[in-house]
Design a protein that fits this description.
Blueprint: H1 2-14, H2 28-41, H3 47-54, H4 58-61, H5 66-83, H6 92-103, H7 108-122, H8 131-146, H9 153-174
Helix pairs in contact: 1-3, 2-3, 2-7, 3-5, 3-7, 7-8, 7-9, 8-9
This protein binds guanosine-5',3'-tetraphosphate.
Guanosine-5',3'-tetraphosphate is lined by residues 20-23, 86, 92, 117, 121, 124-126, 137.
């Protein structure tokens, strides 16, 4: 318990001032949701996996270093977080290619966190996104999530129900393929 609270406290300080694109909520809410999804759907989950879930964006989006993570949380948590960290200097299409080529070979723990992250993201589509951007994002999250489905059936079902709901919401908003739209 205290280990998880330490991760939440470090993440809250590091992501201070950052907001979610979809809802405008504080970014920490997303990290809480991802760890909550894991604790709800995965039996006997290791605390290191929950800590890494809370810290999964910290190297990508804040100034916290690998050395600090190693010192405070150890090599296992650092390895999980590194596996979930994209190289933000690359263009989006290359980052996506890298994710697709790596995810199949990742550990069960990394796939669980990725699946929970995508569960959160798929039901938080920013209202400012265009039809094309929304359709592309839904397709992309489905591709990556599918590669993680073997990690946990319950979480896979959760992703699919949220994906279906978001697809319906997008179709209602933009119109579906029969009416000439892209979704
Ligand atoms: N769906 C969603 N995404 C949000 C939200 N707030 C932040 N994000 C982040 O934004 C990225 C998706 O937006 P992009 O495709 O980069 O598009 P944008 O910069 O034009 O907004 C994802 O990161 P990523 O590193 O590209 O992908 P991922 O591996 O985290 O999924 C996701 O983590 C939100 O409220 N909803």
């Amino acid at each position: 318990m205290s280990e998880l609270l330490l991760a939440l406290s470090v993440a809250a300080a590091a992501h201070k001032g950052q907001i979610r694109k979809g809802s405008g909520e504080p970014y920490i809410n997303h990290l809480i949701e991802v760890s909550h999804l894991l604790s709800e759907h995965v039996d006997a989950i290791d605390v290191e996996v929950l800590q890494a879930a809370v810290l999964h964006d910290i190297l990508e989006d804040t100034s916290v270093s690998r050395e600090e993570l190693l010192l405070q949380f150890g090599s296992k948590v650092l390895a999980y977080v590194e596996a979930l960290t994209d190289d933000k200097t690359l263009p989006l299409s290359q980052r996506r290619d890298q994710q697709l080529s790596h995810i199949t070979g990742e550990s069960k723990a990394v796939k669980l966190i990725k699946l929970a992250d995508l569960c959160s993201n798929v039901s938080s589509i920013p209202p400012s996104w265009s039809e094309t951007k929304t359709a592309d994002y839904l397709d992309w999250t489905h591709q990556v999530a599918s590669m993680c489905f073997d990690a946990n059936e319950d979480l896979a079902n959760k992703f699919m129900s949220r994906y279906d709901a978001s697809l319906l919401a997008a179709q209602a908003r933009f119109g579906n393929a029969q009416s000439g739209g892209e979704i």
